Amino acid sequence: MGKTNTAVSKALPNKLPKKGFGHYLKRDIYLYLLLVLPVAYFILFKYVPMYGIVIAFKEYNIFQGVFASPWIGWDAFREVFRSDDFYRALKNTFLLNGFDMIFGFPAPIILAIIINEVRSVRYKRISQTMLYLPHFLSWVIIGGIALQIFAPNFGMIDTIIKSMGFKTIPFLTEKWHWLATYTGIGIWQSAGWGMIIYLAAITGIPSELYEAADVDGAGRLRKIWSITLPAIKPTIIILFILNIGKISMIGFDRPYILGNQQVKDFSDVISTYVYRVGLQSSRYNIATAVGLFQSVVGLVFLSVTNWIANKSGEQGIW
Amino acid sequence: MVYKTSDKVFNIFINVITLICVILCLFPVLNVVAVSLSSNSAILASKVFVWPVNLNFESYKAILKDSTMIWSLVYTVIITLVYTVIGMFLTICAAYPLTKQRLKGRNAIMLMIIFTMYFSGGLIPDYMLVKNLHMLDSSWSLILPGVLSAFNLIVLKTFFTSLPESLEESAILDGCNDIGVLFKIVLPLSKPVLATLSLFYAVGKWNSFMDALFYITDSKLYPLQLKLYQIIVNSQTVDASIGDGNMSQNLLPESLKAACVVFATLPIVLVYPKLQKYFVSGIMIGAVKG
Predict the structure, then answer these.
(1) How confident is the model at residue A37 (pLDDT cuts 50, 70, 90)?
(2) Which of A76, A75, A57 is nearest to A66 (CA)?
(3) Is the ipTM of this complex over 0.90?
(4) Under CATH, domain B57-289 is a member of which superfamily?
(5) What pLDDT does residue B238 have?
(6) Residue A112 CB neighbours (<10 A)
(7) What are the distances in angstroms from CA A298 to CA A243, A304, B120, B160?
(8) Membrane-spanning regions, if any (chain A) (predicted)?
(9) CB contact under 8 A, A252 and B210
(10) Which residues does chain B have within 8 Å of residue A66's beta carbon, measured at their own beta carbons?
(11) Contact assessment for residue A72 and residue B140, using Cβ atoms and an 8 Å cutoff
């Protein structure tokens, strides 16, 4: 949208006599018609469930329905905050996301810098295609692959470890090993795809900078350190801040599919806890209360980190 | 171009590191393919790495004989298609009007949409809604609740905004209304981004597992991912109900499980190389805004 257009459309309404909404409705009737279904979608599937949050404050009775069920105030929240399982799920959510931050966050940056240094265009393109692939596999498929290659005795990893003379490592059944496996699989799945945004930032670096460095006799490593890294620093900072904003939120598929009974001390997170308590045990008010708690905490984290992003001079999401 | 010796060494070093990354990326997938094509004795003797040992197709024959597996595949394709078509239709309908600065209420609607990206009712209220709409154990529960993505909507809106407005103005002078302009002028100019977003929708649905786990209890309505989950993680037999199936007893589950994984992955891997560039361009449009 050009700047002149914005100026014109802003200036016009002041000069013309004020008209009612009916006038605009009539003028843009086709645009409003197009919006009817999408807006109806958001109201029905996004805002009606937001109203459904009242379940957290009710003793939900399946025969009475949401409306007629009696109010219980904050009882559900009191029960949640007394529950050890809830604190474990909360701790694990931060634990798993924290490991993803520490080990998973740098991976795409390093990968992007390596790939950017590949000189053969063809080799670079083929490598990129291969590295993006895991991003398109579902977590069920990745879970299936993980069960295969980490299987004790005959799995690929175990075979390699044994051939080197080490003992079987319980990758999926001992909680600390599981944590490493969970983090590693996350890197495997997302590092390739995550590097796209850094590669784009690197592409935007003016080639004059590198040429000037060549004249000064800078080596390849020197150029990575003094040109490439500083140039993508803003991208790194903004993505890091946004990631911190999402640290209290966790998807369902990955911990649910990779987790198992033996490692539930680490693998039971908020999303799987809500599923277990809500849908499997039908404790609707407890699960809704936990969900609401997570939504609110998530919104607070996002708002704060976004505020920091804007303060630091980078463009935030809002 | 002439390289210095140190440059040559560096190039070799970088190429080797890249190769190692690619190998790490592909070996788990290749291993599963190899296992699915190997004999049970070879698997148990840890002989299978990335090349099949005692090549055989028994596992695949077993899957193809299992009518529920084939049905699950067809069913998932149908769900994915319907979901993508409805999703794209709604995305287009929403994105185009919201590019018009003159539209009254535009900012309020945008705010309403963006808010849903950061706050939601949560699992139980979603479940209650689906239940109250009588969509539990119905294919619609897999299609409707997530059919319009706010992220995709913003990507498309950003793209529409970048189109030159003069083209639309000339069409309006020729007597086209807004809907006519959208279909005759705007959409034909947007084919690449429409392809990209369709792919986002289609892959998202193909890979989705959570909604089926929550809303579907009837195993006849299991989409492929949920069926796969039951097979590989819960080790349920491929099909216990069908008499002639029975293969789970003759075959070691490992090669069969591996074959099921490959079976569900194959459609993605087949279309992936051709469509990859659309994904990358889509993520770049999205990165501008969100």
Answers:
(1) very high
(2) A57
(3) no
(4) MetI-like (1.10.3720.10)
(5) 43
(6) 24
(7) 11, 10, 10, 31
(8) 29-48, 94-116, 136-157, 178-204, 224-244, 286-309
(9) yes
(10) 128
(11) no
